[in-house]
Amino acid sequence: MHELPEFKAADLTRHTSELFDAAIRSPIAITKHRKPKFVLMSMDQYQQLARGATQQVHMLDEMPDDLKALMIEGLEQDMNQDGE
């Protein structure tokens, strides 16, 4: 697997259009504490990936409540680590 271009999580609010432009070209990694934590990609890239996936994939508004709660819990833990 090749290395993804990396952007800091803070860039999501500071440089949103740059991140979206980069994600249109290829998936990008969003880092927290200098470690890749999330991937941002175009919907076309996501759909290609999902077609071959063996794991469950959900759009946020269609995600089962129990999975959504787990995701929110994980995001809150990551955000709390930023405040340390």
List descriptors.
84 residues; alpha+beta; YefM-like fold; 3-stranded mixed sheet; Antitoxin; YefM-like_sf; Antitoxin_Phd/YefM
Supply the CATH architecture of the largest domain.
3-Layer(aba) Sandwich
Q: What's the gyration radius in Å?
A: 14 Å
Number of strands: 3
- In the CATH hierarchy, what is the superfamily of the largest domain? YefM-like domain
- Strand fraction: 15-25%
The parts where pLDDT drops under 50 for at least 5 residues are none
Number of domains: 2
User: Structural class from helices and strands?
Assistant: alpha+beta
Strand order, largest beta sheet: 1-2-3
Give the terminus-to-terminus CA distance: 32 Å
Main β-sheet description: 3 strands, mixed
CA-based shape:
globular
* CATH fold descriptor of the largest domain: YefM-like fold
Bin the helical content. 40-55%
Number of DSSP helical runs: 4
How do the helices and strands follow one another from N- to C-terminus? EHHEEHH
Highest-level CATH class of the largest domain: Alpha Beta
Outline the fold blueprint.
Elements: E1 6-8, H1 11-14, H2 16-25, E2 28-32, E3 35-40, H3 43-51, H4 65-82
Parallel strand pairs: 1-2
Antiparallel strand pairs: 2-3
Organism: Gemmobacter lutimaris
Family: Belongs to the phD/YefM antitoxin family.
Function: Antitoxin component of a type II toxin-antitoxin (TA) system.
Structure description:
A hairpin with a 2-residue loop joins strand 2 (28-32) and strand 3. Helix content is 49%, strand content 17%. It has helices at residues 11-14, 16-25, 43-51, 65-82; strands at residues 6-8, 28-32, 35-40. The model has no long low-confidence stretch (mean pLDDT 84). The protein folds into two domains: 1-53, 3-Layer(aba) Sandwich (YefM-like fold), CATH 3.40.1620.10; 57-84, no CATH class. The chain contains four helices and three strands; from the N terminus they run βααββαα. It has a three-stranded mixed sheet, covered by helices on one side. With 84 residues, the chain is α+β, with helices and mostly antiparallel strands. The radius of gyration is 14 Å and the shape is globular. It comes from Gemmobacter lutimaris. It holds the Pfam family PhdYeFM_antitox. This is Antitoxin. Belongs to the phD/YefM antitoxin family. Antitoxin component of a type II toxin-antitoxin (TA) system.
